Amino acid sequence: MKRWLGYVRPYKKYFILGPLCMIIEVIGEVVMPKFFASIINTGVAGASVSHIVGVCALMVLSALIMMASGMGGAYFGAKAAANFAADLRRDVFSKVQKFSFANIDRFSSGSLVTRMTNDVTQLMNFVNMLLRMCLRAPGMLIGALIMTVVMNPGLARVLAVTIPVLIVAQVLIIRVGLPRFTRMQGKIDALNTDVQENLTNVRVVKSFVREDHEQQKFNRANGELKEAGLSAMRVMMAMMPVMMLIMNLTSVAVVWMGGNRVIAGTMLVGDLSAFITYINQILMSMMMVSMLFVISSRSIASARRISEVLDEKIDLSDADAAQGERLVERGDVEFKNVSFRYYKDNEENVLSDVSFRVHHGETLGIIGSTGSGKSTLVSMIPRLYDVDAGEVLVDGVNVRDYKLENLRRGVGMVLQKNVLFSGTVAENLRWGDEDADMDELATAARCAQADGFIRNLPEGYESNLEQGGSNVSGGQKQRLCIARALLRKPKILILDDSTSAVDTATEAEIRRAFAEELKDSTKIIIAQRITSVMEADRILVLDDGRITGIGTHEELMQSNREYREIYESQMSGSAEAGREGA
What average pLDDT does the segment 105-112 reach? Predict the structure, then answer.
């Protein structure tokens, strides 16, 4: 509760004014039946036109005041709920931005999207409904109850049966509804994940002609959501007929008993009319409470899911940064007996007892079979993951002693999966340095061999890229990502198989530019092509998470069997391809 009150305090005036306006409207609703009773009992029975006109004038004035207060309550309620939701959504997004890769792995992207959108919307609707009903429903209930007891205590005893039945029905609704709404939100997660995956990879789907398969997947997820939704909605579908049945039975009982009193002369017709109206108000207020409980069942499920994100313990933080203000100055990198597992309850390591050192200005090539741990290894340098054993040092300092921001500002990383964002080419490049001018953009693009094709785009650096950079080729995308990393002017540059989609001549030009422009920076290049790392100062060979060799190309050709096999298989393949082309 303390958490949610934190989102209420900044807008407490709206949270106060909204219900107060509703109370004014409720007072009018409670007074209105008495006006009707007065018109019937005095005006109609006594044929007093002046009395009827006077009471009607009061009713019109009351109606106008009720309208104004009702509009005010709706406005302040919407204002409070919208601000509550906006702040909550901001904090959930902010928390997700702090997640490590391990934290993100525990939530699917579709689930996080659902929590930031659908779940927050459920809470917003609940807050809005609560502000409009929290005083209106009990106010109407109490006011109408008082009026019925004052008018006819004997007839009011009917409610002693009706109200307990309604309370029992509401308790049952909450107990049955809550787990169903929780399941429904989980199915929304699954559907969002499927849709997001399909739209993100639509080109792969079409190229493999898998539209039917994806349609079947969507239909399954959509069907499961439908069934979960129907299961949850059955609670609401059953509630309304039950409530109406109780309301109608109560009205019949009141009309029967009240009618007998009117015939006996112990009750006026106008009072019976007003009494029936009050009975309906009491039952309507109970229905409002029931609706509030139903919505609360769904909002409680959403609140729990949002709390899971907000309460997620961040695996990586600056809490233990002993040298928080320190910056990466040289770019020396050292691994000391590093071991790592993605799943901590798994006995098998992804990396085992890895030790090596790279001096600033050197180029280290990393090569190995698929799944040998190459990408995982370099992810330890900017602390995308933390080691399980051993330590990673940058400039002789454990990476855990740096503030994450300072550490990562010193590391330029081009990931294996190249990601661009919708916007212009210049906007994408400025992710590396948001203050870079056009000359700096062009210089970085030239180093990455991207300047030529950028200038051939319709609007050059101001050309728009579609989401994910889908309107440029794979090689162009890689070069843009390299240019973006170069703009950071990193002390450590990591290229994770990021030239696989460019030809060997372009790749050679990129490496030459690195040698000239990044002389003092540490360069770590992961590659599948052995030609990409042959000229490196040293080459590290990984196999099944262990270092099997490290040295120059010539040294490894003499001493390392895995490296020699990779070289011979690739070079022989290239030679055969050349003969066939000739």
Answer: 77
60 to 72, 153, 179: CA distances (angstroms)? 18, 30, 47
In single-letter form, the type of residue at position 445 comes to A
Is the pLDDT at 293 greater than 80? The verdict is no
Asked if 395 and 410 touch (Cβ cutoff 8 Å), the reply is no
- Residues whose CB is less than 8 angstroms from the CB of residue 193 and which lie 6 or more positions away in sequence, other chains included: 108, 109, 110, 111
> What Å distances lie between residue 320 and 94, 316, 323, 342, CA to CA?
21, 10, 9, 22
Rounded to the nearest 5 degrees, what angle is found at the Cα of 417, between the Cα atoms of 415 and 419? 90
Q: Token digits for 437?
A: 């001018």
pLDDT at 541 over 90: yes
Angle at 261 between CA 256 and CA 265, to 5 degrees: 145
State whether residue 382 is helix, strand or coil.
coil
Helices assigned H by DSSP within 397-458: 404-409, 425-429, 438-447, 451-455
Q: Which DSSP category does 463 fall into?
A: P
Is 73 in contact with 132 (CB distance < 8 Å)?
A: yes
Tokens 């349609």 locate to 215
Residue 427 near residue 419, CB atoms below 8 Å: no
Interatomic CA distance for residues 398 and 381, integer angstroms: 10
Residues with Cβ < 8 Å from 487, sequence gap 6 or more?
A: 429, 430, 432, 433, 436, 440, 441, 444
State the burial class of residue 387 (Cβ atoms within 10 Å of its Cβ: 0-12, 13-18, 19+). Answer: buried
Q: What tens digit of pLDDT does each residue of 464-488 get?
A: 888 777 778 888 888 898 899 888 8
How big, in percent rounded to 5, are the helix, strand and coil portions of the chain? Answer: 65, 10, 25
Burial class (CB in 10 A: 0-12, 13-18, 19+), 253: middle
Backbone angles phi, psi at 264, to 5 degrees: -75, -10
Q: How confident is the model at residue 203 (pLDDT cuts 50, 70, 90)?
A: low
Residue in 296, 274, 286, 273 with CA at minimum distance from that of residue 246: 286
Using DSSP's 3-state secondary structure scheme, residue 336 falls into: strand
Distance CA 238, CA 227 (A): 16
